[in-house]
Amino acid sequence: MHDQMLKKAVSAFAPTNAIMSRVRARISKMQKPISKATIVFLHRDAEKIMTAVFAKYEKTMQKIA
Amino acid sequence: MSAQAERDFDAVYNDLFRDVYAYFHMCFGEQAAEDLTQEVFLRVWKALAAEKTPENWRAWVFRCAVNLKNDYLRRKYTQSGVQSFETMPMELSSGGTPADGEALAIQSALARLSGADRELLALKGMGFKSAEIGELLSLSGSAVRTRLQKAKRNFEISLETEGVQYA
């Protein structure tokens, strides 16, 4: 068998441009590094502080009302 | 990753994507081909990110492809009871890849062969020499030549059945 036939066989299984682009897009998605990070720092007195903040907020809202 | 590495990735991708995809497509079918090819190029990406640049990308990429093929086969053996690569069926295109009449006949002719025959014919059709195929598949050059001869004969018989002229 001539190798030309084997080349033909390989090209019968080649991807379309659409497949090539689709896989490239999927790889690009996976390549993207995480661009944002949220750092949450909890103060040991966070609960006390937040309770005070909300109490102040409540008071202010009552004054406005 | 540097801009140079990204350019290198695109060069390797554009140069080898078609052959790697065709290799997996001939071994297993369309769906597996897409997933496994993606995995090969993710490995290329990771290698470039780690500033690894093999001397011969083609050999490196196909070594990866053969390893992934072996992993895939191991999974198939346990998941779906496929006994060996010899009896591994190939899924024919489900319309994703447009093909003309002759291409479809060639696909059908190849689908009748064993997975091992399809793999050898794929690598030969991509221009690998017997010694290179042997290195990839851990076989001697003479074993590759013998198996290749048999695979070609099987392919010829299968092509005749499909009515494809191959001379």
Could you describe the 3D structure shown?
The complex is a heterodimer of chains A (65) and B (167). Chain A is mainly alpha-helical and 65 residues long. Helices cover 68% and strands 0% of the residues of chain A. Chain A is built from three helices and no strands. The N and C termini of chain A lie far apart (92 Å). The model of chain A has no long low-confidence stretch (mean pLDDT 82). Chain B has 167 residues and is mainly alpha-helical. The longest helix of chain B is centred in the N-terminal third of the chain and has 25 residues, at 3-27. The chains are: A mainly alpha (65), B mainly alpha (167). At the A-B interface, helix 1 and helix 2 of A face helix 1, helix 2, helix 4, helix 5 and helix 7 of B.
Question: What order do the helices and strands come in, and which of them pair?
Answer:
The complex is a heterodimer of chains A (65) and B (167).
Chain A: H1 3-12, H2 17-31, H3 46-64
Chain B: H1 3-27, H2 30-49, H3 57-80, H4 101-111, H5 115-125, H6 130-137, H7 141-162
Q: How would you concisely characterize the structure shown here?
A:
Chain A is mainly α. Chain A contains three helices and no strands. The longest helix of chain A has 19 residues, at 46-64.
Class per helix and strand makeup of chain A: mainly alpha
Shape of chain B: globular
Which segments of chain A are poorly predicted (pLDDT under 50) over 5 or more consecutive residues? none
Strand content of chain A: under 5%
Overall mean pLDDT of chain A stands at 82
- Number of helix segments of chain A? 3
Strand content of chain B: under 5%
CA radius of gyration of chain A is: 31 Å
Give me the number of helical elements of chain B: 7
* Basic shape of chain A: rod-shaped
Percent of residues in helices of chain A comes to 55-70%
The ordered string of helix (H) and strand (E) elements of chain A is: HHH
* Terminal CA distance of chain B: 49 Å
User: What pair of chains forms the biggest interface?
Assistant: A-B, 24 and 37 residues
Main beta sheet of chain A: none
- Judged by helices, strands and strand pairing, the structural class of chain B is mainly alpha
* Helical content class of chain B: over 70%
